Amino acid sequence: MWLRLRPGFTVAGQRRSRASERGEWPSALYKNLNDLGFQGSVYPVNPRRDEIWDVTCYADFASLPEPVDLALVVIPGGAVLNVLEEGTAHGLKSAVVFAANMGEGDDPEVVARGRALTELCERTGLRACGPNCMGIVSAHNKVFAYPNEAMCRMPAGNVAAVFQSGGAMMYWADAAAARGIRFSHMITSGNELDLVLADYVDYLIDDPGTDIIVLMIEAIRRPDAFMQAAARALASKAPQTAQSVALAGFLCNDAFREVSAQAIQLHGGIAYTQEHVAHLYWRRARATLSMFGDSDLHREAYLSAWEAAA
Fold first, then answer.
1. One domain, residues 21 and 84
2. Which CATH number fits the domain that encloses residue 53?
3. Is the pLDDT of residue 56 over 80?
């Protein structure tokens, strides 16, 4: 199972979060995994608790009954690196890092923290989603690592969405679901200090439950790898349908104008890809780039197109 875990999905067993009953997100994550059909083990971790949510709470990775496949790390950014160092020393393979203040903006301490996370992943082989993300949903695999119950309860389908903005994902997924679109995966990639868009696209191309891949792009990291992944999507065949995987995307500076002015600071400090450059990338990859603005008409047209395709 670990060989297919590269973007953090087909998880064989366990979860770990810095558990607190007072924390809204840890509670929601535990509830979604526990109540919605996840088949593996869920191990809450908090060094100050012996029990939480009526189950045993563990002090650290060394105390767990077995090595875990995926950590859901819901703690402040300044504490993340020590937790992941300890985790990898005890067999941790992947993590979803929810914390902000890791790599974004221009604060020297925050930037250094982000570089340290990237170095940790390179040194240990850990694969990380985020930081500064809102989690993932892998509907067919019943991995509901997202602190929003409504999204986790959406019926499974054949559309995979990868958004660099978690807030935009919630808005878009709700609007799309209301129009009958069903999702195989919903991924919020955040600052992309380890896994980037190209990695997720590469994984989803080979996923038998995915026929359509939708991206919301604030910045393209590793553009050459992204181009190769986009080209693969156009050339690939979905195993269950024998049809080409469809790939589309949109830029946040047109799609969600009300939040785009903050996006550079919120996600990695990388300037937006200019429209003419983005179009060039997508044209070279023979993909479809859908651009739309703030109006309901544009959003309706975009969603209607994907409803027809799905």
1. yes
2. 3.40.50.720
3. yes
